[in-house]
Amino acid sequence: MRTRRLRTVHPVLWAGWAALAAGAVLCVVGWYGVSGERFAERQLPYLASCTVPGAALIVSGAVLLAHGRGAIAAARVEELYGLLVAAEPTEEDETGQAALAPLAVSGELLMVPGGTLWHRADCPLVAGKAEAVPVDSKLVASGELGPCPICEPAEETD
User: Fold this and answer.
1) Model confidence over 109-141: pLDDT tens digits?
2) How many CA atoms lie within 13 A of 106 on its CB side?
3) Alpha-carbon distance 6 to 76, whole Å?
4) Could you tell me if 56 and 19 are in contact, meaning their C-beta atoms sit under 8 angstroms apart?
C-alpha cells in the first residue's frame, strides 16, 4: 500500500522541483534583460515574458512540493494506522478492557549475560541471539533478574 502511494507522490515532488528550477531560471533571465535596458518601455517585455511566468512557476513549484510532502506524511500515517489496527486485542479482562496476549509462549527461559530481565525463548528481545543463555534459578530467586514485560515468562524455572 505504501509503495503504491509513494510511486504516485514522487512524480509530484519532481515536478515541484522542476517548476522551481525553471521559475528561477526565468527570473534570472528576466532580471538580466531588464538590467540591460535603460528605459521602462524596453524593460516591460522582459517582465511580461520572463519574470512574471518565472514567479508563477516558483509559486506552483512550492505548492507541488507542499502537496507531495503532505501526501508522503499521509501515507506514513496510513501505514502506522494499519499497523495499529492489525495489533487488535484478543481477549477482555473483568474490567472490560482488552488484555493483550503475550508475544511469546515458549516454556524455556533465557537471559542475556549482563541483562536485568529473563525471557521466554521465543521472546522477540532474545530470539536469535547467540549470547542468550538458560536462566539460572538462583538469579531469579535472588531478585537480580526481573520478568520481561513483553513475553511475561512464568515465575517457576525449569
Assistant:
1) 888 888 888 888 888 888 778 888 888 777 777
2) 15
3) 10
4) no
Which residues on adjacent β-strands are paired with residue 98? 92
Contact 19, 58 (CB under 8 A): yes
Separation CA 20–CA 46 (nearest Å): 19
Provide the 3-class DSSP secondary structure of residue 44. helix
Q: What gap in Å lies between CA 157 and CA 111, rounded to an integer?
A: 12
Three-state DSSP string of 65-124:
HHHHHHHHHHHHHHHHHHHHHHCCCCEECCCCCEECCCCCCCCCEEECCCCCEEEECCCC
**How is residue 105 written as a grid cell?**
509462549
Note the pTM of the prediction, 2 decimals: 0.43
Residue among 113, 157, 121 nearest 137 (CA): 157
